[in-house]
Amino acid sequence: MKIFSSLFARTMRWSRHPHAPWYLALLSFAESSFFPVPPDVMLAPMAMAAPRRAWALALLTTVASVLGGLFGYAIGYFAFAGIRPWLEGSSYWEPYLQARAWFDAWGAWAVFIAGFSPIPYKVFTIAAGVAQMALLPFTLASLVGRGARFFLVAALMRWGGERMEARLHRIIDRLGWASVAALLLAYALYRWGWG
């Protein structure tokens, strides 16, 4: 069954849509403050589909992400009491506590590290607001950390370009089914108490 190749083809067609950069900017903003989907899932196919625009797309993603991070900071600064009950009951509470510990240990460097951390960036932006971190170091660390991540994604996709797109299209079904099998195996091991 070629489910993944048809999804891949649809994603690549969509990434060439004239409004795709606007959607990328919106997703980048939202992910930095409240939305769970990272912008890499849009940036990567868009940069692969249009390698000459990869740097502009990375810049757009970075700026929108930092602006969203400032919104996340404002949520933490002004509205943490309102979201705390929800946060404590969600899967984000432990990462939030980890982010706060990182702020205590490394200050603004924690925001830079957040660009590559498995902890969602939105957790760091909200935690920075709660900690009332100085805004200028927060913004600069966000620009550098997020920019490094998004420009790296864009560089890899730009380097691969059409060759990578064609190769991925040929093997995407095998990769997709292998990923499904690995997830099922991991789940089974976890359920049987081996994880």
TrEMBL record:
InterPro entries according to UniProt: DedA_domain, VTT_dom
GO cellular component, one term: plasma membrane
Keyword match Transmembrane: yes
Domain of life according to the entry: Bacteria
Transmembrane intervals: 56-80, 101-121, 133-159, 171-190
Pfam families registered for this protein in UniProt: VTT_dom (PF09335)
Domain VTT as annotated: residue spans: 37-156
Keywords, alphabetical: Membrane, Transmembrane, Transmembrane helix
PANTHER family reported for this sequence: ALKALINE PHOSPHATASE LIKE PROTEIN, DEDA FAMILY PROTEIN
Name of the protein: Uncharacterized membrane protein YqaA, SNARE-associated domain
Organism: Tepidiphilus thermophilus
